[in-house]
Amino acid sequence: MSERAVLEVIALGAEDAVAAQAGGANRLELVTDMAADGLTPSAGTVAAIRAAVDIDLRVMLRLADGFAAGDLDRLVRAVSEMRDAGAEEFVLGFLDADGGLDLRAVERVVGELDGCRWTFHRAIDRAADRDALRKQLDGMPGLDTYLTAGSGAGVDDGLPTLLAEAARSGEPGYEQRILVGGGLRLDHVPTLLAAGIDAFHIGGAARPEGWDGPVSIAAVAEWRAVLDGIS
Question: What's the Cα-to-Cα distance from 46 to each of 11, 43, 71, 147, 179, rounded to whole Å?
Fold first, then answer.
C-alpha cells in the first residue's frame, strides 16, 4: 500500500492543532501573524502545540514580512528557543534583493538546525531563477521539501511549473518532496496526485470563517477524504 499523502495544515495555536489532527492532518506548520504571511511563533506556543498533538510539526523561521533573512543572530537564537520548546522540524527560505538565493543566510541557519529536517518555503515562488535556486541548495543537510505553488500568483498560474518539476523528480536539485500550497483548491488535487505529487498544504482552506476563526475539523476532513481517494 502506498504511503498516505501528506496533509499539512497551518496552526496558530493548540486549538488549531487539535482540530487539524482530528480532521486527519498528518503534519502542521506552526506560524504566527498571517497578516505578514506567517512569522516565527513564540516558544510557548510551540511547546503548547507539541504537548497537545502527536503528529509532525514544522516551525516557521521568519522574522518579518518578505524574504530577506534580516537579523541572522536573532534567527539563530530562535532556532535554539524552538528546539528547547520541542521543535524538531522547520520551515525557512531567504532571498537577496535581486531574487537570488541568500545562501549565506540559509547555510548559517541550517548549521544551527544540526541535521533537523526542513522545508524551503514559497520564497522559491519569488526567486529570479527557480532551477538555479534548487541546484544551489542541492545536498543541503536536512532539506527534504519545497513548499510551492509553482508561481507567486498561486497554483492556478503555477500548475504547469509544478507538473514539470514533478516530472524531474530524482534529478539533482529535484530530489525533495513537492509540498503544494498557495491558492490550492480541492479541484487541483486530482491533477497533482496523477503527476505523483503527494503533499498538500492548506491554511485558509481549513478555516471557513477566515483567519480570525478556528481550524474546522470538517474542512480538514474533506481534504483528507479527497487525498485518500474517498469522495
Answer: 10, 5, 21, 20, 22
Q: Which three cell numbers stand for residue 12?
A: 496558530
Q: What is the grid cell recorded at 42?
A: 513564540
Rounded-to-integer distance, Cα 80 and Cα 73, Å: 11
pLDDT 10s digit of each residue in the chain, 231 long?
A: 358 999 999 999 999 999 999 999 999 999 999 999 999 999 999 999 999 999 999 999 999 999 999 999 999 999 999 999 999 999 999 999 999 999 999 999 999 999 999 999 999 999 999 999 999 999 999 999 999 999 999 999 999 999 999 999 999 999 999 999 999 999 999 999 999 999 999 999 999 999 999 999 999 999 999 999 875
Spatial distance between the Cα atoms of 145 and 124, rounded to a whole number of angstroms: 11
| CA atoms of 219 and 196, how far apart (whole Å) | 24
Is the distance from CB of 145 to CB of 122 less than 8 angstroms? no
Grid cell, residue 51, equals 504537548
